[in-house]
Design a protein that fits this description.
Strand content: 35-45%
Shape: globular
Radius of gyration: 15 Å
Largest sheet: 6 strands, mixed
Number of strands: 8
Order of helices and strands: EEEHEEHEHEE
Number of helices: 3
Helix content: 10-25%
């Protein structure tokens, strides 16, 4: 599975003018399933997101996780993370899981994140397959790519 994490001061996602999810300080996780992915990889991805030490400690060093700071998590499906641009100027998305598998794994990521993070901070979401507008204030900026096999 692929993810792109952005440390944010605040973020929200809108579909057709309605807010489907919003958080204050925390992480926006753009998530993409690949064809060989399964729920075990979804769980490892969530664990990595929750444990990644990219928030400042009292000394200003990136040494705390989203769990430790009580930050939110906004999970957004984004199949374009699997884009292959090696064949020209039009990206190919054959590296992304088929829609049904992608939806199932995206929902698994959300369920696991809610199970493991709800006691520490809010978990919000986009809408799988929808045209979304993601609004965020990137903090740092800090943007971290993740890949779990």
């Amino acid at each position: 599975m692929l993810a792109l994490l952005q440390r944010v001061r605040e973020a929200r996602v809108e579909v057709d003018g309605r807010v489907t999810g919003a958080i204050g300080p925390g992480l926006v996780a753009l998530v993409c399933a690949e064809p060989a992915d399964n729920e075990a990889q979804a769980a490892r991805l969530v664990d990595k997101m929750l444990k990644l030490r990219i928030f400042a400690d009292d000394a200003g060093k990136m040494n705390r996780s989203v769990v430790e700071v009580g930050g939110g998590l906004l999970v957004v499906s984004q199949f374009t993370l699997a884009a292959d641009t090696s064949g020209g100027n039009r990206p190919s998305f054959t590296g992304a899981a088929p829609p049904e598998q992608g939806r199932r794994l995206y929902e698994a990521v959300l369920r696991i994140a809610r199970e493991r993070h709800a006691a520490h901070g809010p978990v919000a979401a986009g809408e799988f397959g929808a045209a979304m507008q993601v609004h965020l204030v990137n903090d740092g900026p800090v943007t971290i790519p993740l890949q779990v096999r």
